[in-house]
Amino acid sequence: MVHNYERKPDSSRLSYNEEDMARVLLDLDNGEGTIRTISNRYKIPLATLHRRWKGTMKNPGQLGHPTALLLDEERALAANVAALADYGLAFDMDDLCRFVQYYLNKKCRYVPCFKDNLPGIDWGYGFLKRHKYMISNRHCQNITRKRAAVSDKTVEEYFERLHFRCTRSSGNSEEDESNDDQDINESEVMEIEEGVSEVDNEIKPEIEEEGVSEVDKEIKPGSYCLVRFALKKSVVYYVGKIKGKSDDDVNDWEIDYYTV
Asked: Which Gene3D superfamilies does UniProt cross-reference here (predicted)?
């Protein structure tokens, strides 16, 4: 059954402040009247006035149901959830409620309004509302979970590709500046420069002035090479693995591309 919260029609704010309550308690101590008479005079609930007078109220001056966690505990929990979000770790509403359940059980505290000490969705939204200056509910949690699932191997591979790309870019910066002055056709031109081969590392192709290269005939299938796609004012480099070649023309070779 869907739970739709309906606010009570008479649930208005307090009709008195802490100064009025201090004055009322002083009148009770001085014997200005009975507790019922003073309650009717200042329009303060009799039970509230009795608890304040006896000092048994847990949250004086606070309207509404008392929170399951103390104020310091809620602030510490909100700060830790925000810290987890900064590191890209997933922490959704269900994780928050189950963590509170584990914390209450660990402290041997029982909350009657929680079933098995597990907070509901209403408590979760109330917690976010009380600490909205620090945390909020994100609607793109799938991205957060994906980032949280990144392994160490994926990070290492990323930085290896980044290092290889930066090294190639710094080595070919002078050549790129000289090619900007030439009138290059808008169609993509594929060149193979300084072939990086697992079979033969000493292969060095000879580049012609027009942009089409004549590659050493000793390059074999399975070798790795650097493939250059050049437009009019932009150059993109890829790592290519040669699958097969029918002749010595570079444009007729079958190559797999890997972005760096």
From this structure: Homeodomain-like (1.10.10.60)
Taking the whole predicted model, whether its pTM rises above 0.70 is answered as no
Strand partners, 254: 244
Can you tell me the distance from the alpha carbon of 209 to that of 127, in angstroms, rounded to the nearest whole number?
Answer: 68
- Interval 58-87: pLDDT, tens: 666 666 677 888 888 999 999 888 888 777
Among 255, 251, 225, 252, CA closest to 243: 255
Whole-angstrom distance, CA of residue 81 vs CA of residue 128? 11
Q: Which long-range contacts (CB under 8 A, 24 or more apart) does 128-131 make?
A: 130/67, 130/74, 131/74, 131/75, 131/78
According to DSSP, the residues that pair with 191 across neighbouring strands are 228
Encode 211-232: b = buried (16+ Cβ within 10 Å), e = exposed.
Answer: eebebbeebeeebbbbbbebee
Q: Return d(Cα 165, Cα 171) in angstroms, integer.
A: 10
> 114 is written with which tokens?
């929680």
Q: How far is Cα 46 from Cα 195, in angstroms, rounded to an integer?
A: 90
Residue 234 contacts residue 256 (beta carbons within 8 Å): no
Estimate to the nearest angstrom the gap between the alpha carbon of 99 and the chain centroid: 19
Contact in structure between 93 and 100 (CB atoms under 8 Å): no
| DSSP letters for 97-110 | HHHHHHHHHHTT--
Tens of pLDDT, residues 164-222 = 777 776 666 555 555 554 444 444 334 434 444 443 444 344 333 344 344 444 556 66
**Structure-token pair, residue 52:** 């304040």
Output the six-digit token pair for 23. 């004055």
- Which sequence spans correspond to the domains of the chain? 18-54, 71-148, 157-259
Torsions phi, psi of 105, nearest 5? -65, -35
